[in-house]
Amino acid sequence: MDEARKLLPQTCVVIADEQTKGRGRRGRTWYSHKGNLYMTLALPIAKDVSVAKLSLTVGLAIREALMQYIPPAQIKCKWPNDVLINNQKIAGVLIETEQLGNKIYAIIGIGLNIKTHPDLDAAIKATALVAHTTQQINVVDLGREIARNIMKIMNNQQIDIREYWLSTAYGLNHQVKYQPAYAESYQSGRFIGIAEDGGCIVSNDQGVEVVYTSSLIFPEGA
After folding, report:
1. Residue 133 CB: number of other CB atoms within 10 A?
2. What is the pTM of this model?
3. Residues 69-82: what's their mean pLDDT?
């Protein structure tokens, strides 16, 4: 992501064979083994664009690119920034923003497991694309297709991003644990939808709230 940031204000795609300082949300380490796809897309966005909603767009773009290898029904998007194959994590997204003058730029980092994957100590395990297809995979071509898909979806005014994403959603209407910004511990609720700006809608004993700062944990699977 830092290399793409250096190229601003150009719109650019940077694809790396490996990373030495990969990171995920909240400063978590992203395991960056050789043979996987690590890419960053930097592009200008409108000042009113929601990063949460942009993350949904990127997940959909990754899913569309994977559909040449995997049946669509097996590929799900998990809020806020993951893509799953058969309920296992194959890709993650990190979006940061940068202001130069009066313009805002999105720095979109994507990690996609192609040949290897980390052993995650989590309810949702990781997987790699080679475990699900016998087709030849060109890492650079796949990265370019994801970038094209992002631009295509962003520029298509006929697409309702929210409805499109919900049609692919992992765990919709299932019980979840989540940590809202105001709480020090995880809360329990039911994942019931996505707000217009990309936030996660959860219902609980107190009513309904929109969450932006937490990942969702599915204790019972989904």
Report:
1. 13
2. 0.91
3. 96
